[in-house]
Amino acid sequence: MTETIQVGAEVPDFTLNTYEPQTGDFGSVSLSDLKSAGKWTILFFYPADFTFV
């Protein structure tokens, strides 16, 4: 089942694979880690584009 998220709603926790240019390797980041570190996070969705932003 897919959840619908509305503007202003709290986003469920997730983990993403990342590329770390400083080390030249891959890593991961989770929303809960960013929140606990006090980091601001902006999420956006850009459909039908398969390039790196």
Shape: extended
Binned, the helix content reads 10-25%
Question: Care to count the β-strands?
Answer: 2
> Which consecutive residue ranges, at least 5 long each, have pLDDT under 50?
none
What distance lies between the first and last C-alpha atoms, to the nearest angstrom? Answer: 28 Å
Structural class of the helix and strand makeup? alpha+beta
Main sheet: which strands, in order across?
Answer: 1-2
Radius of gyration: 13 Å
Question: Beta-sheet strand percentage?
Answer: 15-25%
Largest sheet composition: 2 strands, antiparallel
How do the helices and strands follow one another from N- to C-terminus? EEH
Which secondary structure elements does this structure contain, and how are they paired or packed?
Blueprint: E1 15-20, E2 25-30, H1 31-36
Antiparallel strand pairs: 1-2
Defining traits:
alpha+beta, single chain, two-stranded antiparallel sheet, 53 residues, 1 helix
Question: How does this model look, in words?
Answer:
- With 53 residues, the chain is α+β, with helices and mostly antiparallel strands.
- Helix content is 11%, strand content 23%.
- It has one helix and two strands; from the N terminus they run E-E-H.
- It has one helix at residues 31-36; strands spanning 15-20, 25-30.
- The chain has a two-stranded antiparallel ribbon with strand order 1-2.
- The relative contact order is 0.16.
